[in-house]
Amino acid sequence: MGGCGFLFILLFAIVPIIGSCIAQMASEKARMEPAPPAPEMTLAATFRPGDTIRIYVAPLDPVVVWRRGTGGIPDCDMPGGRVSLNIYNEAGHEVIDGVKWETVLTAEADTAGFYELTCSNDQSDLVLGVN
Question: Would you state the pLDDT for residue 2?
Fold first, then answer.
């Protein structure tokens, strides 16, 4: 077994080294390739003040309410959950389908489920959306 034993030991010493080299090369290639672009944001639904929409809300996963058009902050109600005001800043803007939307509210709930969200505002050109 003299020659075979040496080959056997050599094989078990080399295979882990080759595997380590392949893993390192794959890791370096992944660092060199640019990250794919972020997917474009879409809205699940749009609605106007006075309309009621049904949305699914889960704990730790609030639904963001967006607005476009003129007018102030809409007054929204979601029985069984909470609607809270977001702080306005440039980071709260997003271009969706070529239109600039502004985040204004978040809808949250302690229990996962479907909730009815109703918003009101006296501005006729205000459009709201949720994602």
Answer: 56
